[in-house]
Amino acid sequence: MDPKKRKKKVLLMGKSGSGKSSMRSIIFTNYLAKDVRKLGATIDVDHSHAKFMGNLTLNLWDCGGQDGFMDSYLSTQRMHIFSDVSILIYVFDIESREVGRDLDTYGAVISALKEHSPTAFVFGLIHKMDLIQMEHRTRLYEERSKIIRARSEGFEVETFASSIWDQSLYKAWAGIVHKMIPNLAFIEKFLQSFAEKAGAEEVVLFERSTFLMVTGHITPYGELNPNKDRFERMSSILKTFKHSIAKNTKTTPASAGFNEFQLKTPQFNIFLIPFTDNTYLYCVVPPGEAHFNILVLNAQLARDQIRRHVESESHADNGQTENSAHSHA
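RESULT FIELD:
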């Protein structure tokens, strides 16, 4: 793969106060939801980079949503902001009292994106859903999603209901990042083969720093689990666990980690280990020591195999970079 394609420009946009910087800080810089109140308003564009899955780098452009900044993005900075975009994430405040105006601004952003990055993926996050009474959430979310799609000028927009106070934020961002994973087909085929050999009911790959679900393989038996949001819940639980480790070891949440996590019950066993430099492998197997020991052995063998693949990819990328340098010399 062209090394340049490993860096993905991600625009994070929406009106001021919609929650853009809060969600970015929780996912990528290990903030707790209760701490985001300390964050100030974003001034112009806040640039940050997040390493994700080996050579993939997310180039995050958190764009301030004040009217003056939005006008500038759509006029004098139009080409600079909207060129070479891989993903646009537009955040809508579900409690906004200016829905029509919000949609007009979104429409103008979509027009600029269509002009300069027509192949970009577009996601709409309908945010702060925790403020809506439970019985009204589904209806309001579906109504707002329909309106957003109608204003999207042909882009196939994926929408998510989200809140910083529950696992919905992890579901939304996992869905977004899933679009950018290189060699996703290889990874999914690999996990399916691993699950069959290890006798696992569920095998999931989590990104190591964010704990976002990358992808996984769920067997028909695993599909019977009634908790459909269990992986997003695991993301939230494991992130909280990292904070506990950091607090008790006097380190930072970013540097805190663990070598292995086991949970054995009469109904199932869970096993979580660092897999590659950027991922954790999460597995669910039937109860019993035999199943568990087979899983551990297969996980160790699979880790060596996937690392060799990642290293060969990295060497290929370096070779392309060197060839490119020689061709420009």
